[in-house]
Amino acid sequence: MPQFHFTLKFALPPAESDSAALVERLFSAGCDDALVGTGTHGRLALQFARECPTAAEAVRSAVDDVLRAVPEARLAGHLPFNETCLVNHVDAHGVHADAIAQPSVIELGE
After folding, report:
1. Is the pTM of this model over 0.85?
2. Is residue 10 exposed (0-12), middle (13-18) or buried (19+ Cβ within 10 Å)?
3. Do the beta carbons of residue 23 and residue 38 sit within 8 Å?
4. What pLDDT score was predicted for residue 64?
């Protein structure tokens, strides 16, 4: 199965201040294939190396895992590719049209 490398960045709710507990919840929710960055208050970055049949499934499952750990998190940024199912999925989780014009947040590479 191919492995996809990509980065997801999220805005966190103000109450999310315990980085160690956050990382543990992410790991338990299935993000054990990601490096987690929590250095900026209110932001979360995850660099994934995820095995999935397609890039869209890799990103979709990663977003689902993060939101299972932090339901109030909001994906920020734009998509550098056109995958209708992924755009619909991400849009349903709070990505607004103005965020699509911001610098790249999700970077896919093989």
Report:
1. no
2. buried
3. yes
4. 95
Cα gap 40→87, rounded to integer Å: 26
34 pLDDT above the threshold of 70: yes
Contact 9, 105 (CB under 8 A): yes
Instruction: Give pLDDT tens digits for 70-106.
Output: 999 999 854 444 444 344 445 455 554 444 334 334 4
Domains of the chain, first to last: 3-109 (3.30.70.1130)
Distances in Å between the alpha carbon of 12 and those of 1, 16, 51, 64, 91?
Answer: 32, 6, 26, 15, 17
90, 67 contact by CB (below 8 A): no
User: How many other CB atoms are found less than 10 A from the CB of residue 70?
Assistant: 18
Instruction: Determine the length of the chain.
Output: 110
